[in-house]
Amino acid sequence: MIEIDSVTKSYGDRQVVDRLSMTVAAGEFCVLLGSSGCGKSTTLRMINRLIATDSGSIRVAGQDIRNVPPEALRRRIGYAIQSIGLFPHWTIEDNIATVPRLLKWPQARRRDRVTELLDLFRLEPATYRSKYPHQLSGGEQQRVGVARALAADPELLLMDEPFAAVDPITRDTLQAELANIHRATAKTIVFVTHDIEEALRLATRIAVMQEGRIAQLGSPLDILERPANDFVSDFVGHHGVGLKLLSVRKVSDRLRPDETAEGEPVLFDAPLRDALSAMTTRRTDRLPVCDAQGRKIGAILLSDLVR
Amino acid sequence: MSSTLGNVVRRPARFLLLRIHNQVLLVLVIIAAASVAAAGFVGVAPNRLVSGTPIPLWMAADRLSTTGITLLVAILLVSCTMTPSKLLHLAVAVTAGLLLLLVLAVAGHAARMLASGASSASRFSLGAAFWILAGCAALAVADALQRLQSGVGTQLIAVLVIVTGAGLLAAAGTFDALSIAREYDSRRQLFADALGRHMSLVGASVAAAVVIGFPLGVMAAKKPRLRGPVFASLNLLQTIPSIALFGLLIVPLSALVASVPQLAAFGIGGIGVAPALIALVLYALLPVARNTSAGLANVDEAVIESGRGMGLANRQIFYQVELPLALPVLLAGLRIVTVQSIGLAVVAGLIGAGGLGTFVWEGLGQYAVDLVLLGALPAIFLALAADFVLQILSTVLRRCFAP
Q1: Do B330 and B370 reside in the same domain of the chain?
Q2: How many independent structural domains does chain B possess?
Q3: Among the three residues A219, A244, A269, which one is the final residue of a domain in this structure?
């Protein structure tokens, strides 16, 4: 979906992005992870030409972006940012329908799409459609921001720390919603964050960035288990790695199908961390495991967690 | 029209053992009562050039009128002690409005009564007590409307009712004996011309200032490097005293006409409309440009960035996002320059540009206060009306923002 080929960007003497190359396959949830000033936002904003590259090339869906007019390119790519940037003088409906209107969708189709998206983000369409952004809570505004990015059904979604400014509980909900949307729509998402937990939770692939280069590119498990250098291992944190691994690995990885246990079951695709938490609070060393329909499909033991 | 009087502490104060809920109204009532007790309601002079003898309300007006005014003021006084409610504010607004119209009618009537026995050279002017009483009544109306949290619609109705009432009184000849009406009567055509000239001076200069100042403001907002020089020069212009600027323009314009005599055919010269328009435009540039620039600069950066990120072209961002969001500040600038130009255009009368200033300067020359008022009062009402109309316009425009 995206091919970035030795792209460079500098501001004055400062090299922000340094001969960076990476590809993002269709359907991937790729997180650019790094501390501030590492060039992750700049990289993201070069993909939709908000920032011009100094050298190197970027191809989106096989097409060199320099050959596409910037407005046309951006209308094909969803874009959501931390400060949301809803148009304060437009209703929620008008905000969400921004790109469809630019693409000249007929009125009825725009309306249906807004209804669909409000439903998707559990915002009652009848109530929310005609409200103004200032009438919404921060979490609701951020939902609208993501809905707006999805409005014209783009194949590619760019998100720049979209959940950094909301409270932890809302962030948790929003992350879960985004993960669901990614699973359901198989859209390609490039997501910038400095929050390792958020990256581990959402990404199918993480690019850890350092001083304009990629320090390591790999699955969440790769990054935790085999950090490429000291920088990456520092960044993911030495001490908490075990717990982070538990939150990346699934119960299904350690399932014993032929065993059973008593009590409230854990879901098979829950992270191991949830299972550990349940065992600790219930003072037990084994838990039953169920599938999405609630059928018991086996058990998990405390010793399995450290296997 | 919306006064700033509404934002007072709403905590009741105690005054002579009474709970005072509306301190603003109480102060207005006290000022009004004191002015009636201490100052003349109308002034009587043997001719238009000498200053008159003040006559208090109770001696100028008949007993019924005096009682009526006293009664309405007493009602307002009592209402200060009553628990605030929508109904009370409405009642105060109506009472104060009635008081305003009654004061106008009584002043006209009193002048007529006094005139019936006097020589035709005698002049009957409005006294300090009249102005203070009428002013307090008008402020009480504005304050009550503010407390009602009335919309523009209600304010418009209130203004229309009072203006219509005053208009009907004028049409019935109530004010004919007042000296200002006598001054008007001898200059009907001149007055109409001057008013028209005044409005066209203001209209043309504000329009020109918007045409020049708006792009300057946009430029200053978009190119921070230009901001310093642009505003430094506009600020410099603003610091030149208006009379001096009108005077300073005489020299270059006369020289210009002397070298290009054809220009005189277009009415350009050292004095007259041309220098007046130039000076008014120069003064109006700063508020227009500064508010344009401030309005655009205040638009949230994130909103513009997300607009760009979604594929709005620069032109679309400007017209659909930046301009509508900056509009309240732009319109505030327009209000400032319009009101300012109406005042400054009076000074332009000094260099022969015509307008209401003609009467002011003529009146000052003759020491005829009523003639000064004939120029000054309409200018004040013009400014109030322009302010009110532009305020309504900004409310209406703010509602039609949807894309």
Answers
A1: yes
A2: 2
A3: A244
Tell whether B74 and B165 lie within a shared domain.
Answer: yes
B116 & B175 share domain: yes
User: Can you tell me the distance from the alpha carbon of A89 to that of A95, in angstroms, rounded to the nearest whole number?
Assistant: 9
pLDDT at B17 over 80: no
d(CA B309, CA A149): 10
Does A135 lie in the same domain as A6?
A: yes
Using a CB–CB cutoff of 8 Å, tell me whether B56 touches chain A. Answer: no
Nearest CB partner across the interface for A81, out of B305, B321, B402? B305
Q: Is the same domain home to A73 and A93? A: yes
Q: What is the pLDDT of residues A158-213, one digit of tens each?
A: 999 988 888 888 888 889 889 888 988 889 999 999 988 888 889 999 999 998 99
Which amino acid is it at B399?
Answer: R
Q: Which chain A residues are Cβ-neighbours of B300 within 8 angstroms?
A: 83, 85, 88
The verdict on a CB contact (< 8 Å) between B311 and A102 is yes
- The more confidently predicted of residues A216 and A247 is A216
Closest to B127 measured CA to CA, from B186, B56, B66: B56
Identify the pLDDT of residue B380: 92
Residues A157 and A202 in one domain: yes
pLDDT 10s digits, B363-381: 888 888 888 989 999 999 9
Last residue of a domain, one of B179, B214, B234: B179
In sequence order, what are the beta bridge partners of A190?
A30, A158
- A–B interface: beta-carbon pairs under 8 A: 67
**How many helices (H) does chain A have, and how many strands (E)?**
14, 13
CB-based contact A85 B300, cutoff 8 Å:
yes
Provide the number of structural domains found in chain A: 2
Mutate to test the interface with B, among A83, A87, A92, A99 (most CBs of B within 10 A): A87
CATH code of residue B287? 1.10.3720.10
Chain B hits for A84, Cβ within 8 Å: 302, 306
Residue of chain A minimizing CA distance to B324: A89
Please report where in the chains the tokens 């208090």 appear, as a residue. B56
CATH of the domain at A158: 3.40.50.300
Q: What percent of chain B has pLDDT over 70?
A: 94
Mean pLDDT of chain B: 86
Domain ranges, residue A264: 250-305
Token pair belonging to B278: 């130039």
Q: Touching check for B313 and chain A: CB below 8 Å?
A: yes
pLDDT at B62: 86
Task: For residue A58, name the pLDDT band (cuts at 50, 70, 90).
Answer: very high
Picking from B179, B198, B217, the residue at the C-terminal end of a domain is B179
Whether the complex's predicted ipTM surpasses the cut of 0.95: no
B230 and B317 share one domain = yes
**B195 and B171 both lie in a single domain:** no
pLDDT digits (tens, 9 = 90+) for B251-284: 887 888 788 777 777 777 777 788 888 889 999 9
Q: What is the pLDDT of residue A190?
A: 95
A118 lies in the same domain as A51:
yes
Whether B312 and chain A come into contact, CB under 8 Å, resolves to: yes
Distance from C-alpha of A245 to C-alpha of A248, rounded to nearest angstrom: 5
**Per-residue pLDDT tens for B27-62?**
999 999 999 999 989 888 887 777 778 889 888 888
A contacts of B321 (beta carbons < 8 Å)? 87
The reply to whether A231 and A294 lie within a common domain is no
Q: If we measure between CA atoms, which residue out of B348, B402, B57, B135 comes closest to residue A98?
A: B402
From chain B, the residues in CB contact with A86 under 8 A are 303, 306
Whether residue B107 contacts residue B130, with contact meaning beta carbons closer than 8 Å, is answered with yes
Q: Are A165 and A86 in contact (CB under 8 A)?
A: no
Judgement on whether residues B197 and B175 belong to the same structural domain of the protein: no
Judge contact between A124 and A179, C-beta under 8 A: no
For residue B303, give the nearest of A71, A73, A88 by CB distance: A88
pLDDT tens, position by position, B334-348:
999 999 999 999 988
B151 in the same domain as B212: no
CB proximity B302 to A under 8 Å: yes
Domain region containing B287:
188-399
Residue B401: predicted pLDDT: 55
CB contacts, 8 Å: B295 with chain A: none
| Same domain membership, residue B175 and residue B318 | no
Alpha carbon distance A151, B216 (integer Å): 37
Q: How far is CA B76 from the centre of its chain?
A: 26
